[in-house]
User: Fold HMG box domain-containing protein from Ciona intestinalis.
Amino acid sequence: MTNVVKTDSTPTSPVQKKMRKKSLQSPVSPSPIKKGRKNARQSYSQSPTYPEVKAPLKIKIRRKTDTKSKSFEVETSDEEQEKEEVQPEPEPVPEAARGSLKMKFFFKKPDKETPKSSTKAKKKKHKHKRVSVTDIKKRRSSENTETFNQSGNLDPEFEEDVLTDNQIPAAEEEIVASEEESVLEQKEEPVMEAGKSKELRVTSEEIPVAVEEVAIASGEETVVDGEDVVSWDAAEEVVEEEVGGDDVAPSPLPMSEPEPELTTEQSLAMKANHVRAMAKSVKASHFKKKGTKKADSKSEDKKRKASGYNLWSSKMRKQVATQFPGLQFGDVSKKLGDLWKKIPEKEKQMWKFRSVKMVNQLERLHSSTTKRKLGSKMIETGPKKKAKAAMQQKLARINTESQEFPPHKNPEQTMKRELAKIPPPSVEAIDAAAHFHLLGEALLAIGKTVRASRSVASTTGTLSLLLDSMVCSFVPLLTLTNQVPELNGALPDELMSDTFANISYYMPGL
DNA sequence: TGGAGCTCCAGTCGCGAAAC
DNA sequence: GTTTCGCGACTGGAGCTCCA
Assistant:
């Protein structure tokens, strides 16, 4: 026997989801449940006549993926159907409870016995936890020997992440300064200049900060939501450029064979564009590899921002897992929850602010409707709606066209394929010049920002950027040095070429 | 049939919305 | 205005589905 519960269309938006869920939950008779959510829950959980489901029906939920409208099939075997029929007729269930009952049947996982998995139990526990947080905060001052490990002391690794009293004032300053910087950045609308890409200036300011935030939040390898969002934007744009369009410039010519009629300045511009494209492609490939499927499947608009706790826990979870290898995920979460309660409020505020700041950056990045043409000076701007619609059209076209090529299931292959689309960077003097040219643009933009903001945070943040810039200058300098005939090309071109590609990824302004 | 991709699960906190 | 609840975020693995 097969019961089919069909939905007309896939709930794509939160509102649709909610409506669909409400339709599933909505009882036959609406009046009793209209008292309110709380009452409805109470009637569900506290009803003495509610039949206890010890062995839920074996339910298979199939989702048809080949059509736009997805339907859900609920299947029950004949044997199970018999069991269902043999069961004594339960006493009448209140209408309000029926709605919830239907919901539970529909989503309950059949054959897993998880004593804690009851939603009600979880919520009760959650509720209790919330109360205990307040109590813990009140008692924290007297419990200055809160422990994490068995020795009774906070683990040294974690102490690195917990601010001491001496550090708190500096942290406060950082928060205030960063807030000022954020406000300033929000107010400041970059002025377009001929020949300068708006996108260049945006990325020169934001990407280093984003990388910094990612480093703060998750260490070097962890995928952080914010980073993915940033990079997927870049990825989309690269795909857009690579797939083509009327306004897309052709791929740069091989570096070793410049057009004879080009002036040095023109060649330099081409090189710079090539470096930009290369960096974007590398980024796109990199994050295509790291991006989670779950994140991919969700619309950016629907994604909820990661909270301060999320950022903090994503970083600390690694440490906890490293220190306690045998711990299950749930145990690690418990420890993280305990630790989160123990860290100072100031530090929590810092993580909260980092979350907010990251969201602001991403929003600004998303709100940027600028489109850059390779090899041209034109910047095209427009209303957000218009740009968004155009982007959606392009993505639709890309999706259609990309069906001609089978997707690479192996991410490594995907990355290699993406990298193969761009010519390898050459290591001639003009390439070094192009890198220096971009570096100069980036530093100029940074200088303007610092001068405009005059904040301490901007200055200190720029120092690390300058250090990165110095590092990024090494290979171009080595390239130039390698031109000296007496050296006989001591450094292999392949090495230099690979390093150029890496620098293109990290280089500010790309 | 094997591999790749997708979904769900665990426990926790934060946020937004609804209820009171 | 306060309280309560649902949902989403974090990660890694297990299990399921789909496709060649």
